[in-house]
Design goal:
Blueprint (H helix, E strand, L loop, with lengths): L8 E6 L2 H11 L3 E5 L3 E6 L2 E7 L14 E5 L2 H14 L3 E8 L7 E7 L5 E7 L7
Parallel strand pairs: 1-4, 5-8
Antiparallel strand pairs: 2-3, 3-4, 6-7, 7-8
Length: 132
């Protein structure tokens, strides 16, 4: 099915493309791939994230039912992200926290909100086989 050359495509609304670039590139370290008048495309941890200019953005950052993010297989990568979030003072919606403590599904998590109130969750499972 999917190989290392494939990318998951995620599209979200953005009220301001400059703010989106500031958050995703200079905040999270995503790579800017393309920019047009109505959208901006990023290499978001190996997947394609597109922020489409829109007036229809969430009024507030709410985790459920819609969010996206990355499940890190390596604890070191999650730790590196936590340090980046703290250093760059990114907007944290929830966490960092430990979920399902004491179970096979135990994992660490943090949820961020971008400038358009899209919610991004980052995780690291103790057992990386359970990230799917």
């Amino acid at each position: 099915m999917r190989n290392t050359h494939d990318a998951c495509h995620i599209a979200v609304p953005a009220k301001d493309l400059d703010e989106a670039v500031e958050f995703y590139v200079f905040g999270l370290g995503a790579k800017l791939a393309r920019r047009y008048d109505d959208r901006v495309t990023f290499d978001f941890f190996g997947d394609q994230l597109v922020c489409h200019l829109s007036d229809d953005v969430p009024e507030e950052a709410v985790m459920y039912p819609r969010h996206f993010g990355v499940s890190f297989a390596a604890a070191e990568d999650f730790d590196r992200l936590l340090r980046l979030v703290e250093h760059r003072k990114l907007r944290v919606l929830a966490g960092p926290a430990l979920r399902f403590e004491g179970t096979a599904e135990q994992h660490r998590t943090i949820a961020l909100a971008d400038p358009s109130n899209n919610v991004i969750e980052f995780k690291n499972y103790d057992d990386p086989r359970l990230q799917f």
